[in-house]
Amino acid sequence: MIRRIAPLLACLGLLVAWQLASLALKNDSFPTALEAIRAIPAVLGDKDSLVNFGASLRRMAIGFAAAVVISIPLGLLMGRSRAVASFFNPLLMVIYPVPKAALMPIIMLWLGVGDLSKTLVIFLGVSLPVIYHSFEGAKAVEEKMLWSGAAMGLSAVQRLVRIVLPAALPEILTGCRTGLVLALITMITSEMIARQSGAGNILFNALDMGQYDTVFAMIIIVGAMGIVLDALFERLRARLVRWSEPQFDIPLSFS
Amino acid sequence: MIEINQVSQVFQTSARQDHLALSDISLTIQDGAFVSILGPSGCGKSTLLYIVGGFVRPTRGAAKMKGRAITGPGPDRGPVFQEFALFPWKSVLGNVMYGPRQQGIKHAEAEAQSRALIEMVGLKGFEDFYPKELSGGMKQRVALARTLAYHPEVLLMDEPFGALDAHTRTRLQNDLLNIWERDRKTVLFVTHSVEEAVFLSDKVVMMTRSPGRIREIIEIDLPRPRRRTELLLDPRYQKYIVEIERMFDDSGEGE
Ligand SMILES: Nc1ncnc2c1ncn2[C@@H]1O[C@H](COP(=O)(O)OP(=O)(O)OP(=O)(O)O)[C@@H](O)[C@H]1O
Ligand SMILES: [Mg+2]
Fold it and tell me: Radius of gyration (Cα) for chain A, nearest Å?
């Protein structure tokens, strides 16, 4: 019971803290939680902003899907083949520390401010954690499992698809979960830089015009989107890798 | 017939040193023979088995099966590993059915055969359990059933009963002997139990401490079918055991 309502309590606590903080600060650019919540229906009721949200979600879905489809096989191959790993590792090491949104201006020069640039940035943001976790997952697959498969007559490709992929799936999905959050972040930041459409566009336009209750309403909406997406993904993950979940919750005692 | 011809195995350790694991092993195993490999821990028993399985390529020498050089794993040689070999994302039934399905046997038929095998190893009722839901001994029995399911001509067993309690161990030894007497598969069986080796085998190959060499090959001339309770009273059986135990002691190689 407590476990079920704990997230709700956490959200509620956050809102209360926000309300108190903004009442105490009495700052124009920091509306109270209630004011922000009251502004939500206006944002969601507006047809224009719904179109913007739709565009954001579409880019995010395409970027995320493309990244997953390409990164999982690449990561798995890297995990099982030293040659592939030593070819791609340096490349990834170069890209890894660069904030993907920082590439946005350059990409915009090449591809314009439209969907393509933003989707590409989301793709890049999602790719790295998925590649990394697929790589680690594939590397950790027990040799005896692969040997057993080989003895049953599975070819190298079959072993990759039918043994390495399922065995590494829990790890891969961990990467996808990180990727999902990053997709949301890069989605917003890309729209902040290429201000042309999307949820980030609404948010930063409102900021420019000093409509702070709209700004904070957007923050709540984006946050809620993150929570819902993550919860949905967690459901899918739990279904896919039920076989690997730990049996018992070990109660930790701090006494 | 399996011929092992002057096989030596050198491993490169992580510290870049050469480690001689097997030295000049020559051994011939007749079709239908039950041969055990016995020796102190680390003498290369598993390595020798892996070479016959085609999982490890020997540094020097060669292994042949039916006159053809062994270049890789194949469904004619079925391994039963010590641990970590089951597919954790497959149920018990799924694991056992994997080999037959891979060989193109129809689902219904593979399932019927697999259920019979699962019953034989004493796991009726556990068909839908996942490996993480089984005890160590149960996993080992699934591993045996999974390998038997695709009917390899040669069984390569690496201490398959090592983790079992005495009762289950005896039962499975009897089951294995029954299967062997029915099908006359060739069995290469690694164990560190002298009693187990003598009870099961036609031939016991004693190895020396690392680097592994063949120290002696003992023909076990006891009547079959063997009954454990009868053998325990048989002076010939006792003599074999004492003789082999002495060899362990001689060189201070007792475990
Ligand atoms: N991949 C490897 N790299 C380096 N050394 C190895 C490797 N595999 C095995 N060895 C070494 O080879 C020797 C033989 O190992 P092996 O596993 O065959 O022994 P074993 O007789 O099966 O022992 P046990 O009874 O404990 O299972 C050991 O000394 C081990 O250190
Ligand atoms: Mg071993």
Answer: 22
CB contact under 8 A, A150 and B130: no
Q: Look at chain B and count its residues.
A: 255
Q: In this predicted model, what pLDDT tens digit does every residue of A21-35 receive, in sequence order?
A: 988 888 888 888 888
- A2: phi then psi, degrees, rounded to nearest 5: -60, -40
* pLDDT range class, residue B144, cuts 50, 70, 90: very high
Tens of pLDDT, residues A41-52: 988 888 888 899
A227 vs chain B: nearest CA distance in angstroms? 28
Global pTM reads 0.89
Compute, in degrees rounded to 10, the torsion defined by CA atoms B178, B181, B185, B190: 60
Q: Is B18 in the pocket of ligand 1 (CB under 6 A)?
A: no
ipTM of the complex, rounded to two decimals: 0.92
Count the Cβ atoms, other than its own, within 10 Å of residue A90.
9
B2-76+156-250 CATH choice from 3.40.190.10, 3.40.50.300, 3.40.50.1980, 3.30.465.10: 3.40.50.300
Look up the CATH number of domain A28-239.
1.10.3720.10
Q: Which residue of B85, B88, B89 is in closest CB contact with A148?
A: B85
Cβ-based neighbours of A66, under 8 Å, separated by 6 or more: A119, A123
